[in-house]
Write a structure and sequence with these properties.
Order of helices and strands: HHHHHHHHHHH
CATH superfamily: MetI-like
Largest sheet: none
Strand content: under 5%
Oligomer: single chain
CATH architecture: Orthogonal Bundle
Distance between the termini: 27 Å
CATH class: Mainly Alpha
Number of domains: 1
Helix content: over 70%
CATH topology: MetI-like fold
Radius of gyration: 23 Å
Structural class: mainly alpha
Number of strands: 0
Length: about 250
C-alpha cells in the first residue's frame, strides 16, 4: 500500500506541470509520448543494456569485496592478536574508517590511472576498514575459556585460529560483512560515476550527459533493488541464521 501511494504521488507530480518532463518523467503512464521510467527500465532490460551494466558492476563488486574480506580478516587478526599492532595499526584503521572512500579517488587515479584498477581500489578501500574493525572486535571477544581449553588440549597457531577463533567469531564477521558490503556498494557507484567505463554508474553519467532523466531514474531503481535484495535476502538471512545457531537470538 505504501509503495502504491508513492507511485500515485509520483504520477501526480509528473503530470502537474511543476517540473519539466525531462526533469521529472512519468513513472508508468504517458499521454503525450514522453519516455517513462518504467518503459526505459523494461526496454533497457530487454535490450540487455541495463542487465549488461549490472553484471559488470556486480563482477567489480565481487572482486573488490573478496579482496577487502581477506585484507580485513588478516589485519583484524593482527590487531586482535598482537598489542603492538593494536596500538599502532588499530589507531590508523580507526582513523581511516572515518574517511569516505570517494576521497581516495584522486589518489587512485594518480596511482593506477582512470580504469578498472582504480575502481577496484575504491571498492576495496570502501570495505576493508569496516571489515578490519569488525573482525578485530570479533577476535578479541572470543571467550577466554575457549582459548584456555583449546591450548590445554594442544591447539595453537593456525590450528587454534581455524578451529576455535574463527568459528567463535562468526557472528561478528557476518555482521561486519553486511556493513562492509554496503560501504563497498556505495563506493563502487561513486567510482563508476566518476571514472568507470561500463557499469551502472557509467549509465547514470550517460543519462546525465544526455539529460535523460528516465534513464537516470531507471538505473537508480536497479541500484536500489540490488542493494535491497542483497541486504535483505542474502546478508540479513545469513546473519539471522548464524545468530540463531549461536544462540544469540530467541528462535520463533
Amino acid at each position: 500500500m505504501f509503495i502504491t501511494t508513492l507511485f500515485i504521488i509520483w504520477e501526480a507530480i509528473s503530470k502537474s506541470g511543476l517540473f519539466p518532463q525531462f526533469l521529472w518523467p512519468p513513472l508508468f503512464w504517458s499521454s503525450h509520448g514522453e519516455a517513462t521510467v518504467f518503459g526505459t527500465l523494461v526496454g533497457g532490460l530487454i535490450s540487455g543494456q541495463i542487465l549488461e551494466a549490472a553484471l559488470l558492476t556486480l563482477s567489480r563488486l565481487a572482486v573488490g569485496f573478496l579482496i577487502a574480506i581477506v585484507l580485513g580478516l588478516a589485519l583484524g587478526y593482527l590487531i586482535a592478536r598482537y598489542r603492538l599492532f593494536d596500538d599502532t595499526l588499530g589507531f590508523v584503521v580507526t582513523a581511516l574508517q572515518s574517511v569516505p572512500s570517494i576521497v581516495w579517488f584522486p589518489l587512485a587515479i594518480v596511482w593506477f590511472g582512470l580504469g578498472e584498477t582504480a575502481i577496484l581500489f575504491i571498492v576495496t578501500i570502501g570495505a576493508t576498514w569496516t571489515m578490519t574493525v569488525t573482525s578485530s572486535t570479533g577476535f578479541k571477544n572470543v571467550p577466554t575459556l575457549y582459548l584456555r581449553v583449546a591450548r590445554t588440549m594442544g591447539s595453537k597457531g593456525f590450528h587454534l585460529l581455524r578451529t576455535v577463533i574463527l568459528p567463535a567469531s562468526v557472528p561478528h564477521l557476518i555482521s561486519g560483512m553486511r556493513v562492509a558490503w554496503a560501504f563497498a556498494w556505495r563506493a563502487l557507484m561513486a567510482g563508476e560515476l566518476l571514472g568507470g567505463s561500463g557499469g551502472l554508474g557509467h549509465l547514470l553519467e550517460m543519462g546525465r550527459a544526455l539529460q535523460s532523466m528516465d534513464l537516470v531514474l531507471s538505473v537508480m531503481v536497479i541500484i536500489g533493488l540490488v542493494g535491497t535484495v542483497m541486504d535483505a535476502q542474502v546478508f540479513l538471512r545469513v546473519e539471522r541464521s548464524v545468530m540463531r545457531r549461536w544462540g544469540m537470538t530467541v528462535r520463533t
